[in-house]
Here is the input.
Amino acid sequence: MNSNLPQAQLSYWIAFKAIFVRELKLAWQKPSQIIQPMVFFLIVVTLFPLGISPAPKTLQMIGPGVIWIAALLAIMLVVDRLFRQDFQEGTIEAWLLSTVPMSLLVAAKLLAAWFISCSVLLLISPVLALLMNVESQVIPALMLSLLIGTPILLFVGAIGNALTVSLNQGGVLLSLLVLPLYIPVLIFATSLIEAASFNMDYSGQLAILVSMLLVSCFFAPVAIAAALKNTVN
Amino acid sequence: MWKWLHPYAKAETAYNLCYRLLPYFSWLAAITLIAGSIWGLLYAPADYQQGDSFRIIYFHVPTAIWSMGAYTSMAICGMVGIVWQIKNAELAVYAIAPVGAAFTFLALVTGAVWGKPMWGAWWVWDARLTSELILLFLYLGVIALYNSFEDKRTAARAASILAIVGVVNVPIIHYSVEWWNTLHQGASITKFDKPSISPDMLWPLLLNIAGFLFILAAITCLRLANQILINDARRPWVKALVEQSSTEATSLVKGK
Here is the structure.
């Protein structure tokens, strides 16, 4: 770092903000990034009453799990094209050349991606919970688990996308890499919801989910930066 | 220590080390596995509750332990490769992965065979079983990722990163028994102060645990040596090696 540059201190925050705003602007211009995962989420949940049974008791039992699995698959869809365009048009090479650490830029991109694609899943989840006949006292727990769980899924999935971004057949390979890592999150999130449905204390599961979130927040950008550097070189 | 370790970053030295260690590991594996298996299967006393069917423990527990141990060592190799840019450590990741996958598969199969008479089901969705299944998927992911890159240097580094990411799963497997209190019996031998297994049963088990470790090490050495040879196929030291072995072969033929 050159100490003659007085703005060097500021540039981390400016770079973070610039990438965050850029992502939001891109999403605003092409809203399919926002709408498609949401519609996918809705359709997958719709398939379950048709495939298993529309009986209210059954739906009540499987509802939270179905909503969680659908959210998980929708995030797989989001993650699959997360870095693809940036890789093809050379944005990632520009990131590599900048003086700002790559993991910080990646963190900005991930935060923006969560706001663009995952927050809508969170917002429509109560509607899906009504469709699946989920009891009303469980809905806050469902939303809470999605609020904490979806960023974990996004961060972990982004690692998989960064590893496979240069390959043409990314999709299937990505699910093979990423879905096993999603399983612990799914287990704790659904066990949180189950505890809530029995009116039991679910702070234990919540604490584990939050700790997973913190760990993934901390390590995912570093792993993604390393993976992207590896594919660009 | 660095002076001592540093030469092994060079492909030729690492190859020679693997090649020299291979017979030791192979013989140790053969001796301990044969002794442990015969002792365990024929001479160890039958369990008062589970009868003779408990004897599958002599294969189930070692493979389960080293399925996790192999993953951890794979991740450590990946870490060393990524942090210090040592190519041989990255190659070791892919040398370990299929062996670890095979161990995980064996642990799952022997577990299913044991579970059928004991729990009355081939498979239950118990936390430990599920975690072991996830471990198998993780291994398959590493193998698939490595194989889908044309450039093997990139492939090895990508597989290393994935192995490091996946290693968070290994503690989850380990602590799952305490986290979810379920069907799977608690650990038998980790409590060394007062093991809940009788010494007559314990000794063959320890022998087999050592045996499976040695066989893991032997196969890894063999695979790593081959991987180094393939990677450096155009380097002078490999050519010299090939010429040396071919002249040896022709002199053998002439001698006859």
User: Anything to note?
Assistant: Residues 29-232 of chain A form one domain. Chain A has a mean pLDDT of 86.
